[in-house]
What does this fold into?
Amino acid sequence: MPPIELAKTLDDVNQMMARCTETAREENSADGYFTLIYNWETADLVRAADAGVFQAPDEIRKMIVSFANRYFTARASFRAGEPTCRAWTIAFRAARTSSALVVQHILLAMNAHINFDLGPITAQAGLP
It folds into this structure.
């Protein structure tokens, strides 16, 4: 498998999410619903950090990048036919093959990202 492209900055996250959404559109994959919502929510979090809503805004910004990289890693692994966690596998397969409702596709991906990815990233950040 070629090296996985990871975000280094918030701008990278934004650009990479936009590319994921565009790729999903080109492939007629429901995977783009999640990345579109994800990008909007990330922008909201960045604005909140910039506005001083968080006690540790720099750590939040770093956490956003790390959290997004968990998604990028799972997506790249799945697309390369490499193993990824079951929650992501179910979400990515459904995005390609299922006629589920848009909200169901979003919830499948949110489930994987929140329940599988958020814990390790939060622990890694070591926020008070």
In short: The mean pLDDT is 93. Residues 2 and 108 are 27 Å apart (CA to CA).
